[in-house]
Structure formats: C-alpha cells, structure tokens
Amino acid sequence: MNPILESQAHLTRRQFFGRSAVGIGTAALAPLLSRDLQSSVGTLSSKLSIRSQELPGISHFVPKAKRVIYLFQNGAPSHVELFDWKLKLKALHGQPVPEEYVKGKRFSTMTGKPQGKLMLAPVEPFQQHGQSGAWVSNFMPHTASISDELCFVKSMHTEAVNHAPAICFFLSGSEIPGRPTLGAWLTYGLGSESENLPSFVVMTSVTKNTTCGQIFYDFYWGSGFLPSKLQGVKFRSIGDPVLYLSNPDGVNRQVRRGQLDDLSQLNQMNLEEFGDPEIATRIAQYEMAFRMQSSVPELTDLSDESPETLDMYGPQVHERGSFAFNCLMARRMAERGVRCVQLMHAGWDQHNSITTELYNQCRDTDQPSAALIKDLKQRGLLDDTLVIWGGEFGRTPFLQGDMKDRKRWGRDHHPYAFTVWMAGGGVRPGITYGASDDLAMNVAENPVHVHDFQATLLHLMGIDHEQLTYKFQGRRFRLTDVHGKIVKPIIA
Questions:
Q1: Is 163 in contact with 393 (CB distance < 8 Å)?
Q2: For residue 138, with 0-12 CB atoms within 10 Å meaning exposed, 13-18 middle and 19 or more buried, which class applies?
Q3: Which of 110, 194, 341, 414 could disulfide-link 330, Cβ–Cβ 3.0 to 4.6 Å?
C-alpha cells in the first residue's frame, strides 16, 4: 500500500544488496504474505512491526455482518412524508413556522430565511404497523409490511445543506470529494470474498420522467488516496454491464488469455523495477475482468429465478436499470460474496412535486426495497447482510411554494433531523431509535451524527473505526475522521 515499502518488497537479491543496507525484515516478510492478504486494516509501521489489528483482511473482532447493501436515495426523501408522523404538524398546517424552531439555523438558498414560511402537514395519512407499532405513511405500504424487520433511526442529522456535499459526507466522511468511500474502506480493511466479482459494486437508477434527478458523480464510489483497485465498479444498465468486458470481434477466450499472460509478464517486470502499487492494481484488474467475462453474464441471467421471486420485486424487475432490477442483482451479488453493493436511486428532490412525483418515486422503490429484505431473509442471508435505506438529509416541515397551488407543493433540504432505516446484519429489528421534536424539525432524543452512523456500520462489520486508518501526506486518515461514536442500543 505504501509505495516505498511496496518497492522494497519487490527488490531482487541483486537490487537489494546493491541499493539498500536495510530492509531485511521486508524481504523476509514478503513471501509469507499470500496474494489474498493484500488489503490491510493498518499499515506497516516505520520499523516494520506488525500488531494483530494490522494483519490484512482480518476483523478486529467477530463481525455481525459480512456484507453491506446500501440503498442510497439520492435527493433526500421526506422524513415528514414517509416515516416521522407528528400530530402537531398537522394541527399547524398553513400557519407560520414558530420562530423558536428555526432561529439561527442555516437552510439552502432556495429557502433563505425560514421566518414566515408556512407549515405543511403530511400529504398522505400515517398508520402504525406490526408488533412494533412503527409509524409509516400510505406512501410506503410494502415497507410498512416489513416494519418488524426494520430499525428506524429518526434522529439522524448532518452538516451539509446541498446534495453533492451531503452525499459525499455520508459515503466518505468528508463534504469535499477525494476521500475513500465506504466500499473502498471495507475492501481495504476486510479484503474480498469473491474471486470472480469485484468486492465493491455500484448500480444507479432514476425514476422515469422525474424532474428532480440527481447527477451520479464518480467520486461517490471512488477510492480516494487508497489504491485504485479498491474503487467501486459501476455496472451499467445498457450494453455490457461493465465497459470493454466483451472480447473484440475475432478474439476468442483462448487468445485473450494469451494476451493477458503476456501483458501480465510485462507489467510484472515494471512492478519489480519500480515498485509502483498501481502496476499491481493493473495486473489484478485485468485478471478480474477476464474472470468477470464468465461471472457477470451468469449473474445477470434471471432464468433461474422463480416466478414468485420475480413477482415479489414488482413489474419493473425485468427492466435493466430499474431500481427493482438492481435490488434483485444486489441479492444475487450477496450470494456470490460481493462485500459492498451500493444502489443509488435519484429523483427524491421534491422542491415542487410532493403531491405528484413523490408517488412515482415511492412506487418505484417501495416494493423492491421490501422484497430485498424478504428475499434475503427466506434465503438465510439477512442475518449477516446489513441493509441500509436512506438519503443525504431530510425535507423541511414547512412548505416550499404557494399554499394555494397544491400541485406545486414542495419541501426544501433539511439537515437537522431525518430518518434512515436499517435491517439485518446484527441490527435490532422492530425498534425505533431516537426522535425528532413535535414538528420533525430538530433532534429531540438520542442524536445520531453521520460519523456515529459510519462508526456503527463499521462496528457491525467487525471493524474498530478508530483503527481502520491509512497514512496519506503525513496524516493517518479514517472514514470517521476524528469523530464517531458507536450507537450501541441499535445493535442486537
């Protein structure tokens, strides 16, 4: 991982004695580390000592989850509309927002000063569901049906008020692009369980005909300053799932194998000469691409799925690029050892479409999300698969728009209190943790910051978030920066 140490590890005997008077420990250690132990929870210290928590690909403690499926809802779903029922909000519908709830708070430039904004009651009614009595609106009937499997965290809060910085903050621990993202950190810390598929896969989707789609930036699944082999591999919805995966016309698998063998020898010569870890990345990725030529077509072939399973995910499951199709792919990847699957669905940015496009958004995502939980559970995978559903922030309890123009009602960005839900992977099912105030405006009980959320996620994966570090430009970085507390009450 460190270019200097990597170079030392690949020195020949002649180069070793000709160029260096030190490094015997590295030379002795290199043959003992297998190819599968190339990702590391820590790095070799300057004296090349190794502590137990720094052994590559080994958890700090027994994990509750082996993999993560993150159903990231780009654009920020309205907690007020979906999961956070407040009687007082309904009672204050159409009245100005009370000053004490918004005094001194920063909102997006679309809201500006919140003073004088009118409170907006939920568009659809809420009901309690299951033995847990969880409040879920009529927008989400399928999610409501699995409420006893879910852990609702209703006290999330963040610092960002715009989409890209807020998404980046959730996925990388920084509002500024360039840091490693969650899947890259997990692969770096725990290694890969699959020989034939990437450890970190990303799929994107957008609700059809939406006016509020978000851009999917590559840095949402980037590896930052970690080796580039750890970045997410994006599966496309059209053509080959991965670019250049198919052989060119006239090139069969045997010819391709020979080309890669020759290319690997050339790259290996450069690696031994220069010790650049990116050359090792290139070798590994060529080999992964060759194996994926067989594994990806098998992965995306749904002929072995029963009609009952396909029906469970809804009518869009046959449409490549839909959220339903991607959810089914996520389950199939979980079966095949993919460490982190990041599904990103855009269209939630309802500044003026709460009464129109929100229905489409929920229709496209509600049933597949619930089906994924049911499918994982009936296959015995939910216990060690952590599923997360949520966006980058919530939506304001007050109206954005004209109260007289119902078709254009909307809500602005709201970072001060919002809801995510989690399931499986060691999370306590059927509970609600934390609470917002009586207008769903601010956190009132058990606040959970983004870094607390990240620390808890890593803990469920068997990682101490303070130990998962990487030294870059003289500083040790981690996903949670210098913050983060594990939310222990939600852990089973």
A1: no
A2: middle
A3: 341
Q: How far is CA 260 from CA 194, 233, 263, 266, 290, in A?
A: 20, 20, 5, 10, 9
Express the helix, strand and coil content of the chain in percent, nearest 5 each: 40, 15, 45
Mean pLDDT of 392-397: 98
What would the mean pLDDT of 369-385 be, rounded to a whole number?
A: 98
Encode 232-249: b = buried (16+ Cβ within 10 Å), e = exposed: bbbbeeeeebbeeeeeee
CATH entry 3.40.720 includes domain 67-243+302-490 = yes
Whole-angstrom distance, CA of residue 231 vs CA of residue 245: 17
Q: How far apart are the first and last CA of the chain?
A: 35
Centroid of chain to Cα 401? 32
Give the pLDDT confidence score for residue 293 in this predicted structure.
Answer: 83
Residue for token digits 């007050």? 398
Query: Scanning the structure block, which residue is given the tokens 């621990």?
Result: 173
Tokens (6 digits) for 277: 């870890």
Residue whose tokens read 């229905």:
359
Any idea where the domains of the chain sit in the sequence?
1-56, 67-243+302-490
Of 84, 87, 95, 79, which is closest to residue 398 (Cα–Cα)? Answer: 95
Question: Residue 163: exposed, middle, or buried by beta-carbon count in 10 A (0-12, 13-18, 19+)?
Answer: buried
Distance CA 300, CA 241 (A): 9
pLDDT of 71 over the 80 cut:
yes
Tell me how far the alpha carbon of residue 75 is from its chain's centroid.
15
How is residue 76 written in tokens?
A: 């920020």
- Of 445, 442, 450, 391, nearest in space to 158 by CA: 450
Q: How confident is the model at residue 415 (pLDDT cuts 50, 70, 90)?
A: very high
With 0-12 / 13-18 / 19 or more C-beta atoms within 10 angstroms meaning exposed / middle / buried, residue 250 is exposed
Cα 124 from Cα 122, distance rounded (Å):
6
Query: Coil, helix or strand for 254?
Result: helix
Please report the pLDDT score of residue 251 as a whole number: 82
